[in-house]
Design goal:
Chain lengths: ~250, ~280
């Protein structure tokens, strides 16, 4: 299969552990290109662990993870780094480098991976910051940004190299409803403009219904995927009561 | 009752905790070796592509562990020379060995005490700062972010610090050497009533230029050890805020331990092989 029409992510029979505990037990799923997938589940069900496996930070106990057809599990160190540079990740707390300004944070991947001149990099950073409505804040330090701005800056940094695959970890956690909603809009705009596949770990119901094409829900008990589908359908028709309860805010 | 229960579970508890201790030790040693490998590869990479070293960070850390440490290094080494001189002067005066004070203080400071004092100051000032910096970056997922950008975090977070320490520590040691000799001189002049010129010529005749080289080499090695351990403990930080405190503490304790061990080996090396 050529890289063009193979799925963005393929997870096959993944077994993952955190410390000594098995967290994910033989799970498989596929994410087609251009889809916005949300990974749901109650706290401690392994959402973040799954994300860390997808992004290559953790090595699974067994199973396979293919990103655009290339294995991140079995890649050698150098190959893995190359593969990692091909996707963008925005972390829960932003994870911006605190000793760098906003501009330097977004510029870092460009400086390291492209041969662009200083001026071209500055232009590109401006363009990315404009996309997340942060143009004009180039010279602020991360400590001077609000929670919402931090996350938007993290988005800009994740998109610096125009990746075809983006991972967002709890983008709207800890934000006020207005910032949270504008972040959802931003995610949809990003997909529209870049056509990127986006995987989001979240448990914000509003965001889930607003942005996701498809959701998978993990369960802490069975350590498996207990629901997979459009969130609206899952809310109404899912056979699993727990899934309906989750998507209906605890009410059935 | 509680006492009885504890007694009953004594043998199992004992073996479990001893086993656990060895397991932790094994894990730590392994992680240290892996970290050493990654740092070496990052350093080699930096030598091959010197243009890729981030100059701003290098200068920042050179300032942090070098220039910023000059006053405290000068003061502590001066006082060390002063104390050493004072204690020795009291004893030596009894035997009429006053004339040897300059040599004793000079050699002891330059060959041993100044590198050691500089390293202990650096452990407290910079080694712990490195551990805390990398540790808190780990907690806030910045290290993960570097990794998922496809970078080797060691290249960004360790290499500039390592170069800065290896370059600046010897300079601090030279300042410490001079400060220590001055501290001894104050005693020589005030307690033993030696003229400055006599103290100076005694110092010059005892302290060979090679001793300064010893001082420089020792502190460079200690600087690398302190930086390595500080960064390593930083990378080993767990994911909670308390973990940063723990890794800072362990970086200080381990750095002092390994500096002393290295000093023992180097003292033997310099006394038997070099001189």
């Amino acid at each position: 299969m050529s890289e063009k029409n193979c799925p963005a992510i393929e997870v096959k029979d993944l077994v993952a552990k955190y410390g000594e505990r098995i967290i994910l037990n033989h799970i498989s799923f596929t994410v087609p290109q251009g889809e916005i997938l949300t990974i749901l589940g109650s706290s401690g069900c392994g959402k973040s662990t799954l994300l860390k496996h997808l992004t290559g930070l953790y090595t699974p106990l067994s199973g396979e993870i293919l990103l655009h057809g290339k294995s991140i599990v079995h890649a050698a160190e150098e190959e893995k780094r190359l593969l990692m540079s091909s996707f963008g990740v925005a972390y829960q707390g932003g994870a911006l480098f605190r000793s760098f300004t906003v501009e330097e944070n977004v510029a870092l991947p460009l400086e390291e991976y492209t041969l662009l001149s200083r001026e071209e990099i500055r232009k590109k950073v401006k363009e990315k910051l404009k996309m997340v409505n942060l143009d004009g804040f180039q010279h602020l330090m991360p400590a001077d940004l609000s929670g919402g701005m931090l996350k938007r800056c993290a988005f800009a940094r994740a998109m610096a190299l125009d990746p075809k695959l983006l991972f967002f970890d709890e983008p709207s956690a800890g934000l006020d409803p207005v910032s949270s909603a504008s972040l959802d809009e931003l995610i949809l705009q990003i997909r529209e403009k870049t056509g990127a596949t986006i995987v989001i770990v979240t448990h914000e119901l509003d965001s889930i219904f607003r942005i996701s094409d498809r959701s998978i829900m993990l369960d802490a008990g069975t350590k498996k995927i207990i629901a997979d589908g459009k969130p609206e359908d899952l809310r109404k028709n899912c056979a699993n009561e727990e899934v309906r309860r989750f998507l209906n805010r605890g009410k059935l | 009752m509680a006492g009885e229960d504890q007694k009953k579970s004594f043998p199992e508890d004992f073996f479990i905790s001893v086993g656990g201790m060895f397991y932790t030790l094994k894990e730590e040693i392994f992680s240290c070796i892996v970290f050493a490998g990654r740092v070496s590869s990052a350093v080699l990479d930096a030598f091959r592509h010197p243009g890729k070293i981030r100059k701003r960070e290098l200068l920042y850390f050179m300032n942090l562990c070098g220039a910023d440490g000059v006053p405290i290094t000068f003061l502590i080494c001066f006082l060390t020379g002063f104390i050493l001189g004072y204690q020795c002067a009291v004893q030596m005066q009894k035997y009429g060995a006053d004339a040897f004070l300059a040599g004793l203080v000079g050699c002891a400071m330059v060959r041993e005490l100044s590198p050691l004092m500089v390293s202990i100051i650096a452990t407290g000032r910079t080694g712990s700062a490195f551990a805390a910096e990398i540790g808190s970056m780990k907690v806030s997922e910045e290290v993960d972010a570097l990794r998922t950008m496809g970078f080797m975090p060691e290249r960004f977070l360790v290499v500039p610090k390592l170069f800065a320490m290896a370059l600046m520590m010897p300079l601090l040691a030279i300042i410490g050497d001079i400060a220590g000799i001055l501290g001894g001189a104050v005693i020589g002049i005030t307690v033993l009533h030696q003229p400055l010129s006599a103290y100076y010529s005694q110092t010059v005749s005892w302290v060979r230029p090679g001793y300064f080289l010893e001082s420089i080499i020792k502190t460079a090695v200690f600087g690398i050890i302190i930086c390595f351990i500080g960064c390593w403990r930083g990378f080993r930080t767990g994911s909670d805020a308390l973990a940063v405190g723990r890794s800072t503490t362990s970086s200080v304790v381990l750095s002092i331990l390994f500096v002393i061990i290295a000093d023992t080996i180097l003292a033997h090396f310099f006394n038997n092989i070099f001189f």
